Amino acid sequence: MRSTPPLHRSTPTRVGSTLLTSLGLACGAHAQEGPTHKAGDAFGHRIGQESIGLYSESLVRGFNLQESGNYRLEDAYFVRAANPSDAVVEAVRVRVGSQALDLDFPAPSGLVDYRLIAGDRERSKLELGFQHLSDNNPRPYLRAHVARRSNDGNLSLAAGFIGSHSARYIFGNEAEYYGIGLVPRARLGERWQITGVLTRYQHQYQADVGFTPAGTQALPRPERLRYLGQPWSRYDTRNSTYGLIAATIARDNAWDYRWSSLYSGVNRPRSDFNLFDAVQPDGRAEAATVVARGRRIEAWGHEAVASYDWTGARQRHELTGLARLRRSDYRNPHVDYVRIGPVSILEGTTRIDGPGAVRGAPYSTAAIDQYEFGLGWQYQHQDGFALNLGARRAHIEQRSHPLTSPKHSRASAAWLHNAALVVPFGRRTTMFAATARGIEEGVSAPENAANAYEVLRPILARQHELGVKWQARPDLALLATAFEIEKPSPGFDNNAVYRYLTEVSHRGIELSLAGDLGERLSVVAGITQMQLRLRGEPVADGSMGKRPLGRSARQALLNLNYRLASVPGLSIDADANYYGPRPADALNRFDTPGYAVLNLGARYRFDWAGTPAAVRLRINNATDRYAWIAGTSGIQTYEPERRIMLSLTLGD
Fold first, then answer.
1. For residue range 117-129, what is the model confidence (pLDDT) as tens digits?
2. Cα-only R_g, the chain
3. Predicted model pTM
């Protein structure tokens, strides 16, 4: 038996043991380095505004985690109405597969973990960038954060800002956005750490655009930066996140506690959408603008956790109790469909006057109350063997008050469970298996549905996975995972109402290679291959195909980063992303083709009067690839054009 250090907690404020230690997936963080150096695998990591990985907050194993609602903020339960502002979010990691094994109560489809600006040391960082360097208007933006500590280290305050007065998005729509945030922290006594968060984000832009084809043919290619929507259509959102997290600094053979209360709110005076329907190969289409006014979402998530561990020289046990309470309130917007009429998306669209204001009209509302209690146990042996078991009882009450029908409510309860096992085989190979059954948020009906913007009921999802990790070298790891996810799937009924009609399963394998190939060359590579299948009455009677609309069964990534020996501080990087074909209609009669996108970049790190600095150049879609992408509602969008970005960062 090999000798290993005594078991102990790996992070000072975490409640729960760390099965990731068994897999050796911890990764360091260094100032001014990009996400390539910080990625422990190829499954999704974002630092600031740069991300790398097969997955993101909006796509994990074929599912949109922003719809699933599985989030943590500094390890605390977070019911997301909108993302916390990037003004104070320093990093985002997608916790899926091996990265989710140590979670006390994991989510079936994966989980998004937000990390706030740290206050463990004094620091300042200023980033000035340009989002469209090759244009006459390069679209500048500013991002800054600062952290300060008291002399005794018991108090700290981090603050951040992000904003641009002149941004432009993929449809040529003009935008502006501003975000601010504060993260105060206080240490009380020997063990308690209090973390507060307060963010505000305001975002305004001309409303997005979507297209649906007239038949099974490919759509034509309009100019990507010419705005085809109505100039008065707009998307205006004000997002807020605030709350407190109190946790004990973890200690062996003792009780540890965490309590959190976090709010997430959205106020959208307008959330319009421009739709071009029945698009012909010559560009002719029927245009309409969906005008949505007055949407609001408010969500509170409260959590209390208590745990006790028994840590010895060779093994460790931890027992965790959990109580959660959430309340979500929805005010659905007033929706008007403004018909524009026949247009050409190749020649430009007809401009009409916008609709007048709607005043005093009632809103339809809905609310969800959920509370759950859970008990979990984790075991870890110094040889790498680990076990994680959990069970919860969840109760949900849903209430709805439509405009045209009486109030109604429904209550339900379910048992949720999770289990994970890690077994080492020799010094370099580790096997793991996991299963989970959990609750996920209901999706919102898309803009082309009769019940547009309505939030559907929460659902139960199940996931099973089996994986292996091979540590080729201390700095290079290969991961392979087989998985299956099952959950209800929404679609359009005969009345164009978007609701749950079928069950969907995503069964597949994923591979990840991450680490150093040489002294100066780093790699992050991955591939996912899935079988996506629907089942239910609409599939059996032929009114719906077997494959879910707008989801790709194949995805791949290769990212290389090379640090030049001849120019210290200079590195170049390239990543190629492949996205497979997607069914473009519910009957699976045709697909949008698969395509690859190449991104190129360079980063130069240097010292400016004693301050660490970096210049970053990024060319997105370097070959200017044009590709249509089908969404889960049948609405198609296109891959953004080539974009050159340049930024200067001072500080860390």
1. 988 889 999 999 9
2. 25
3. 0.89
